[in-house]
Amino acid sequence: MESTMELWLQKANVLIEALPYIQRFHGKTIVVKYGGSAMVEHELKKSVIRDVALLKLVGFRPIIVHGGGKDVTKWIHRLGLETKFVNGLRVTDQETMEVAEMVLNKINKGLVSMMEKVGLKAVGISGKDGTVLKVRKKLADGQDIGFVGEVKEVNTSLLNTLLENDFIPVICPVGSDDEYHSYNINADDAACAIAKAVKAAKLAFLTDIEGVYRDPLDKSSLISELSVPEAKEFLKSGGASGGMLPKLQNCIDAIEAGVSRVHILDGRIEHCLLLEFFTNKGIGTAIIGDQEERYYQSEK
């Protein structure tokens, strides 16, 4: 009986710990960039969808932006096409663009179906719908790599309409240029641009890494929080490398554009969104604005 009571008390304490975060972000818009293993493994998919359901039910207003590069590569190979990358960007000719758009839309509708199954109202769109994502051609070190775009403008009209009518927008990162040609967009970039445009309270990147480390070889060096000046200094010091470089820069850009907090999370951990958003310690790395209250002052 005593052990049962301790378990109940632990559960109660979890709810109490979550209360101030629920109060603070109730009614606020959050953007979740959904990618990595959490999009591939079925149980992780279900975990993320349940997290989003709970966030919605306690008053958050989620927007989901998803990737799908692994599935795009798989289908390109199935069709006997060649995959080339320049500086991490996929060279995208017309045929590759058609495959990418097909695959991303398939993923999009699959996510919507999973959300509907748990009682959520979700609408799957591409960045082309309602001209949500207007793009210009993106070059790789001055090299033309085809239909790869960078976001130059976000039209929030459709997103606001969906949010105001209690729907969760689920967005695949395809946009259009001034001539309405389709362009593939890096999902991190798309999520960052959307978060800035809607002035999101939070932007979360689900990745296949635990967060930002001071020393990538030392798992105990995970950084729980970074202010924008600290994040800029970290970039200057060379502490970030590979894919973390553009991700951290996206975080800084989002904060400077008005997003309150940006989170880099390990999507391989079940319920990572709830653990990061609703617990004092969190599990990933949060980048915060200069005026934002630190959650972990005792550790600084």
Automatic annotation (TrEMBL):
- Tell me the pathway: Amino-acid biosynthesis; L-arginine biosynthesis; N(2)-acetyl-L-ornithine from L-glutamate: step 2/4
Localization recorded for this chain is: Cytoplasm
Return the protein name. Answer: Acetylglutamate kinase
> Which reaction is recorded as catalysed by this protein?
N-acetyl-L-glutamate + ATP = N-acetyl-L-glutamyl 5-phosphate + ADP
Q: What does this protein do?
A: Catalyzes the ATP-dependent phosphorylation of N-acetyl-L-glutamate.
Family recorded in the similarity comment:
Belongs to the acetylglutamate kinase family. ArgB subfamily.
Task: List each copy of the Aspartate/glutamate/uridylate kinase domain by range.
Answer: 28-266
UniProt GO BP: L-arginine biosynthetic process via ornithine
Give the site residues for Transition state stabilizer: 33, 247
Read off the Pfam families from this record: AA_kinase
State its Enzyme Commission number(s): 2.7.2.8
Q: Which InterPro entries match?
A: AceGlu_kinase-like_sf, AcgluKinase_fam, ArgB, Asp/Glu/Uridylate_kinase, NAGK-C
Q: Where along this sequence does the record place binding of substrate?
A: 68-69, 90, 184
PANTHER family assigned: N-ACETYLGLUTAMATE SYNTHASE, N-ACETYLGLUTAMATE SYNTHASE, MITOCHONDRIAL
Q: Which UniProt keywords apply?
A: Amino-acid biosynthesis, Arginine biosynthesis, ATP-binding, Cytoplasm, Kinase, Nucleotide-binding, Transferase
Which Gene Ontology cellular component terms are annotated? cytoplasm
Which terms does the record give in the GO molecular function aspect? acetylglutamate kinase activity; ATP binding
